[in-house]
Structures are given as structure tokens and as C-alpha cells.
Amino acid sequence: MTSRTIHPVERGYGVAMGVEVRLRPFEQGEFSTAVEPEAEYDDFGPQAGYGSPPPCRLEEQGAMAVEADGELVGMVSWVWQRWGPNAGSSNPMIGIWLLAGHRGRGIGTAAQRQLVDLFFRHTPTNRVEAGTDVDNLAEQRALEKVGLTREGTARGAQWRDGAYRDVCTYAVLRAEWA
């Protein structure tokens, strides 16, 4: 695997095909009802809506709303995991979900790019990870455009649509982002 530094100009901050993309905390009532799966990779079983806005502190598990030209179109989320015995070995694993009509326009790439940048600017983490279904080629392309490097395959790691699925794992290090 090769690594490369992602230059700030390449980041294309907040713009996707002429659409302004912004992350923000959720407001009361947003995504408060369950949403039916809209695509093959959305089927994780029944998902309840948010009774109250989820936390958006970067230091703990959380989520943020994704807006495109001022319209709520999805969400990014993250969980923290540890690779070693101390807190310094922790890093966020990020994910994204967009309403079906807003996919394929670069919005997810721009949103995930902003989220990675937030983690490197506002936490001491050295690594940001993501994973996606091995068949989800669109998300694999998006993660690579963000600047994450494919590291491998986690076999049978994700339960979706009644079966265990393989996941492509991706990550970017702080030194590659600078």
C-alpha cells in the first residue's frame, strides 16, 4: 500500500457538483421516525428514529446532520474503537447514510471529507477508519476520493439483510491528511 498526503485544495471543502454541503448538529424532530431501507446497502433491519437529537461531540459516539444547499439529506455518524490498551490507541470509525435521491452526486464524499477533517483538527486521534460492504462500489470510490486507503477485508463482519457480509476496511492517518 502507498500513502500520500492529501493537500487542502484537493479536499474540495463543502462543495459537491455545485452543491454546498454542510455538517451540523441535529435539531429536535429531525429523522425522528423510522426510515425504510431505500437501497440494498441500507437493510440492517428495523431502525427507530431519533427520540431526541443524537450527541455530536467528537470525543464520543455521535452523529451529525448532512445538509445540501440547506436541505437535510442524510447523516454521518461515528463510533470510537480501541486498537490497544490505552486511550491513545483509540480512533473513530465513520459512516454515512443519505436519502436515496441525493446519492451519486458527491454529497457523501464532501460530507465524509468534512468529518475526517473535523476529527484531525479537533481531536488527538492519529487514525480515522471506515468500512463498507465489499459490493458497495460507490462508497468505496467515495472513501478513496476522501483520501482513505483500502487496508483489507474484514470477513463476515457485518450483519445485513439476514446474512453476515464481508466489509472493505479503509483508513487515513493524520500524517497523510496534513
Tell me about this structure.
- By secondary structure, the chain is α+β, with helices and mostly antiparallel strands.
- The protein has a domain at 8-126: Aminopeptidase.
- 17% of the residues lie in helices and 37% in strands.
- It is built from 3 helices and 8 strands, in the order E-E-E-E-E-H-E-H-E-E-H.
- The chain has an 8-stranded mixed β-sheet with strand order 1-2-3-4-5-6-8-7.
- A hairpin with a 2-residue loop joins strand 7 and strand 8.
- The radius of gyration is 16 Å and the shape is globular.
Shape: globular
What fraction, in percent, of the residue positions are helical? 10-25%
CATH architecture assignment name of the domain at 8-126: 3-Layer(aba) Sandwich
According to CATH, what is the topology of the domain at 8-126? Aminopeptidase
- In CATH terms, the superfamily of the domain at 8-126 is Gcn5-related N-acetyltransferase (GNAT)
Reading the helices and strands in chain order gives: EEEEEHEHEEH
| Low-pLDDT ranges | 1-12
Averaging pLDDT over every residue, what do you get?
Answer: 86
Structural class, by secondary structure, is alpha+beta
Which strand order do you get reading across the main beta sheet?
A: 1-2-3-4-5-6-8-7
End-to-end gap: 19 Å
Which CATH class of the domain at 8-126 applies here? Alpha Beta
How large a portion of the residues is in β-strands, by DSSP E?
Answer: 35-45%
